[in-house]
Amino acid sequence: MRRLSWFNTVSLTLGFAFLYIPMIILITYSFNAGKLVTVWSGFSTKWYGELFRNEAFLDAAWVTLKVAVMSSSIATVLGTMAAYVMVRAGRFPGRTVFSGMIYAPLVMPEVITGLSLLLLFIAIGLDRGVLTIVLAHTTFSMCFVSVVVSSRLVTFDQSLEEAALDLGCTGFEAFRLVTLPIIMPAVVSGWLLAFTLSLDDLVIASFTSGPSSTTLPIKIFSAVRLGVSPEINALSTIMIGLVTVGVIGASLTSKRSIAKRQKDEQEAII
Amino acid sequence: MKRFGLISVPYLWLLALFLVPFLIVLKISLSDTALAIPPYTPTLDISQGWEGIKAWWIALDLENYFWLASDDLYWKAYLSSLKIAIISTILTLMVGYPIAYGMSRAPDEWRPTLMMLIILPFWTSFLIRVYSWKAILSNEGLLNQLLMYLGVIQEPLVILNTNIAVYIGIVYTYLPFMVLPIYSALERLDESLLEAAEDLGCSRLKAFWLVTMPLSKQGIIAGSFLVFIPAMGEFVIPALLGGSKTLMIGKVLWEEFFSNRDWPVASAVAVVLLLLLIIPIVLFQRNEEKQREAEK
After folding, report:
1. Mean pLDDT over each residue of chain B, to the nearest integer
2. Choosing among B4, B8, B24, B261, which should be mutated to test the A contact, i.e. which has the most A CBs within 10 A?
3. DSSP, residue by residue, B167-189
4. Residues B186 and B216: beta-carbon distance below 8 Å
5. Of A217, B34, B121, B165, whose Cβ has the fewest other Cβ atoms within 10 Å?
6. What is the pLDDT of residues B76-117, one digit of tens each?
C-alpha cells in the first residue's frame, strides 16, 4: 500500500478543510437560538419551525421542484440524443455548429443566457412563467447531460450494437435493448445533474420567471442580499442534508452495481 | 431518414433556444432605447421585406456601442472583470493543483471517498455556498473573532464587501471545476515515467517539473477555462460578497436590465462580453474535442 507523503497529507487536509468548514459553520448556526448568526446563544430548532410556517418559501419550493423535474426529464432525452449524434453520427453538415452549441452553454455566463432567452420569449410573445423557466433550464442542462452521456458512449463497445442488428433488431430495438441498459448509469447521473442545476439556478430563473413563478433561489437571494438570516441557514441545512444523502446513496448503488457486474463477468468466463 | 430525425430534434432545439436568442440580443443592441413596453424601438422591420432591411441598413447606428465606449463605467467594468477572473483563476489553480495531486497519490481505496468529497460541494447549492462566507467574513464574523481571540489582530479586518471576498468566493465555489480535470490527467499518469526520471538523475522536484507538470497540462488548461470563462460574467458572487466598489460586468448587465430597464444597452453589454469570451470558449472547445479524440 502506498502511503501519503507529509506534503500530500497537508494539502489534502487543508483543501478539504477549506471546502467543508464554511458549510459546517452554516449548519451549526442554523441550530442557534439567537437571531445573530455570528454569536452562539444556545441550541434550538425554532428556525426550522419558522421556515415551515413560511408560506412564501413553501410555494417557491414547490415551483422549483416542478420546474426541476420537468426540465431535467426533457433535458435527459434531448441530451442523450445529442450525445448519440456527437459520438455516432459521424460527419454531417453543420456538425461544427452543433458541437459549438453543445459546449458553449457549459461555460456561457448565465447573465447572457438568461438575457437572450428572455428577449426571445418576449419576441415571440410567450408569457413568463413555469413554462419559460422549464424551456430555459432544459436548454442549458441538456448540454451537461450530453457531455456526461457521451463520455460513456465513447468507451462503449460498438460491436455489441452491431451484433444486435445482425440478429435482426431494428435500430431502435438495438438502442433500447443493448445500448440504453449499458449507458443507463450515465443517463441517470445526467438526469441528476440536470435536476440539481435546475434546483440551484438563480440568474437564468430571474430573467425567465414571471411574477407568479418565483423559485426558491430567487427567494433566497432576495432574503440574503441584505444580510444573513437564521431561517436561510435552516433552509440551507435541509438542502445540504438532502444532497448529501442523495450523493452518498448514488455512490453506494453504483459501487454495488460495479461489484455485481464484475462478479457476473467472472462467472460468465468460468 | 431516421438519422436525420435523430440529429434534427436536438439540433433544432438548440438553434431555436440558443442561437436565435443571440441574434435577437444582437438586433436589440442596435435598437433605440424608448420609454415603452418593451422598452426599445426596433429599427429593423422584417415585415416590410427588402425595403425594411434597406431602411434599417441606412439608418443603422451603433449608438449603444458608442455609449459603452464613451462612458468609462463600462470599460472599467470589463477590465476589472478580466482582472478578477484572471487572478481568481490563478488562485484556484494554486489551491486546486495540490489537492488534485494529493488525491492522485492517495491509496487506491481512499480515492472514491476523496472523489466524492470533492464532488459533494459541487452538488450543493451554489447560492448557499456563496452565502456561507457572509457569516465568516463580516466585521463581526467568525474569522475576525478567531483572529482577534488569537491576538493576531486588534481591529477587525474589513474583508466582506471588498474584492478579496470576491476572490475567496470564486476560488471556493469553482474549486471542483479545477480539481477534477487535473485529477483525471494526473490519475492517468504512468508512475514509471517518474521513476525513470529519478533513475536518470532528476531530483524529485525537477522530475515533477519536467514530467508531471507537462503531462497534466491538458487538465490545467481545461480547469482554467472552466473557472475563467464563467468567472468573467459572474453575478451572484460580486452581488453577495463584493461591495459597491466591486465592478464586474455581470453585475452591470443585471443592473442595466433590471434597475435601469435599458434593454438595448444591456444587450450591447452582453454582445461585447460575448465577443471577449469567444476566443477562450473556442479554445476550450478545441481542447475538449482534442481530449475526446485522444480517448477514442
Report:
1. 85
2. B24
3. HHHHHHHHHHHHHHHHHHHHHT-
4. yes
5. B34
6. 999 999 999 999 999 999 999 999 999 998 888 888 889 889
Residues B71 and B256: their CA atoms lie apart, in Å, by: 13
* Interface residue of A11, A110, A208 to substitute, partner B, most B CBs within 10 Å: A11
How far apart CA B184 and CA B23 sit, in angstroms, is 37
Contact B91, B175 (CB under 8 A): no
Q: Scan for cell 472547445, then name that residue.
A: B285
pTM of the predicted model over 0.80: yes
Is A224 within 8 Å of chain B by CB?
yes
- B111 three-state secondary structure: helix
Pairwise CA distance, residues B49 & B192, whole Å? 69
pLDDT digits (tens, 9 = 90+) for B2-26: 677 788 899 999 999 999 999 989 8
Contacts of A219 (CB under 8 A, 6+ apart): A56, A57, A60
Give me the DSSP letters along chain A.
-----HHHHHHHHHHHHHHHHHHHHHHHHHTBSSS-SSS---B--HHHHHHHH-HHHHHHHHHHHHHHHHHHHHHHHHHHHHHHHHHHS---TTHHHHHHHHHHHHHS-HHHHHHHHHHHHHHTTPPPSHHHHHHHHHHHHHHHHHHHHHHHHHTS-HHHHHHHHHTT--HHHHIIIIIHHHHHHHHHHHHHHHHHHHHH--HHHHHH--TT---HHHHHHHHHSS---HHHHHHHHHHHHHHHHHHHHHHHHHHHHHHHHHHHHHHHH-
Among the partner residues B14, B99, B266, nearest to A12 by beta-carbon distance: B99
Indicate the pLDDT class of residue A164, thresholds 50, 70 and 90: confident
Taking chain B, what is the end-to-end CA distance rounded to the nearest angstrom? Answer: 27
Q: Which three cell numbers stand for residue B251?
A: 453585475
| Integer Rg of chain B from CA | 24
Phi-psi region of B49 (alpha: psi -120 to 50; beta: other; left: phi over 0): left
Residues of chain B in contact with residue A115, where contact means CB-CB under 8 angstroms, are 25, 253, 257, 266-267, 270
User: Which residue is listed with cell 448519440?
Assistant: A84
* Closest to A150 (Cα-Cα) out of A92, A113, A106: A106
Q: Is A85 on the interface with B (CB under 8 A)?
A: yes
Cell of A84: 448519440
Q: Sort out which chain A residues have CB atoms less than 8 A from B25's CB and list them.
A: 112, 115-116, 119
- Are A201 and A217 within 8 A, CB to CB? yes
Report pLDDT for A1.
44
Helix (H) or strand (E) holding B236: helix B236-240
The span from the CA of B57 to the CA of A44, in Å, is 67
Task: Specify whether the CB–CB gap between A235 and B115 falls below 8 A.
Answer: no
> Looking at beta carbons, which residues of chain B come within 8 Å of A26?
128, 131-132, 135
Which of B18, B187, B221 minimizes the C-alpha distance to B105? B187
How far, in Å, CA of A31 to CA of B235, rounded? 30
